[in-house]
Design goal:
The chain has 390 residues and is mostly beta strands. Helix content is 7%, strand content 52%.
Length: 390
């Protein structure tokens, strides 16, 4: 089979699956179940969850939606920079469905930061068609795949990522990372009503080695990868438009002769439909050494946009440069896109959003801070209705 044949087959499959996904999303948004299914309810994310690993790296089919979200900044031996996103989503068609009945889709993007290129592809597969799914081993390790895109998860966390499409490629071996629980022990409240929340943890500092490919050329790379794993049923409240999210891997210089301090910072700022900041916005800061984690409520940090970019494709205006301030830590950061054009225009789900590599500079208690990370901007075209309470 030639590459052109593969692309044609992928396109035909995508059109068919897009129609299937639209039906599933309609069921979610309307709050209706197929008539032949027994009356049941998805589980809500409530306080007091008891985490257990490696169990909780795996899927949670009692919740309506779930994702394993990977972003990273990678560099060649000659200093050429790349960013990537590879995300696997699991959507349950109705309460009580097993993993074989679930719907899996994935987003894969590469930012060629040296040349200003941005490449994106998406996939959608049904578990019943044996084109995607999750396969768990007795040890708790598992494989999550959609066609030839896959995540291999070991008992201590992600071990490998693989994706190929056209001239795009990603093949990475991943090292271990500490777990960062967001919110209150991993319970992340997004709205005022009980259940408008998710269970959410991050692996913020996965060391990566492997190769990345653009335009058919492969490059050996190394760098840092951030993983978010989140599962829920209802996340956003009806008055919420979208969110601004950052996952930042930083280094803070300390006194002369002392080793640098690692800072891992997750922030999400929920936006209401009038543009104001929602009070359920939150941040998590991990500092090491010494190892310490601080959860910050909405009033404990500020995210202020300082530069906007207008997408020529969708007309959406995205804030691609920010200042971030955490007064309690005397931390002030400038976060700026490494290139403006990092918008994902999804045809299967019909959701457009900006997700891209950023560079970070600033000061922490008077000491220089620098680093990199990823910025996600959603709801600038339209609200994410499929994640709102039903």
């Amino acid at each position: 089979m030639t590459a052109a044949d593969s692309i044609m087959i992928e396109a035909r499959t995508t059109r068919t699956l897009r129609a299937a996904l639209l039906v599933i999303l309609w069921v979610f948004c309307a709050g209706r179940l197929p008539a032949q299914q027994p009356a049941a309810q998805f589980r809500s994310a409530l306080p007091g969850y008891h985490w257990q690993f490696p169990r909780d790296h795996f899927a949670h089919p009692e919740f309506a939606n779930e994702w394993w979200y990977f972003t990273g900044n990678l560099t060649t031996a000659h200093g050429r920079r790349f960013g990537f996103e590879l995300t696997f989503f699991r959507i349950s068609p109705f309460p009580g469905a097993d993993l074989r009945q679930d719907f899996y889709f994935a987003h894969f993007s590469i930012s060629d930061l040296a040349h200003g290129g941005f490449y994106f592809h998406e996939r959608a597969r049904r578990g019943l068609w044996r084109q995607a799914g999750l396969q768990r081993q007795p040890s708790g390790a598992f494989r999550l795949w959609t066609a030839n895109w896959q995540l291999q998860m070991g008992t201590n966390g992600p071990r490998r990522l693989d994706a190929d499409w056209g001239g795009m490629a990603l093949h990475l071996q991943l090292g271990p990372s500490p777990i960062l629980f967001n919110g209150v022990n991993g319970w992340s409240q997004k709205g005022a009503r009980l259940g408008e929340s998710s269970y959410y943890y991050s692996l913020p500092r996965l060391a990566a080695d492997g190769e990345i490919g653009v335009s058919g050329h492969r490059h050996g790379v190394h760098g840092l990868v951030w993983m978010d794993h989140e599962f829920a049923t209802n996340q956003l409240a009806p008055n919420q438009q979208g969110w601004d999210w950052m996952g930042l891997q930083l280094e803070s210089s300390t006194a002369a002769g002392q080793p640098a301090q690692d800072l891992d910072l997750m922030l999400f700022q929920l936006r209401q439909k009038d543009g104001s900041k929602d009070s359920h916005s939150s941040a998590t800061l991990r500092m090491a050494p010494p190892a310490s984690v601080t959860t910050l409520p909405s009033g404990g940090f500020q995210m202020t946009p300082v530069r906007w970019w207008k997408s020529p494709a969708t007309g959406a205006h995205y804030p691609v440069a920010w200042t971030v301030s955490i007064p309690s830590r005397q931390l002030t950061l400038t976060v700026e896109a490494r290139q403006d054009n990092q918008e994902l225009r999804t045809r299967i789900t019909g959701v457009d959003y900006w997700e891209g590599a950023v560079k970070v500079t600033g000061r922490e208690a008077g000491h220089p801070v620098q680093g990199s990370g990823y910025l996600e901007l959603t709801g600038y075209g339209h609200a994410l209705r499929a994640l709102q309470a039903r």
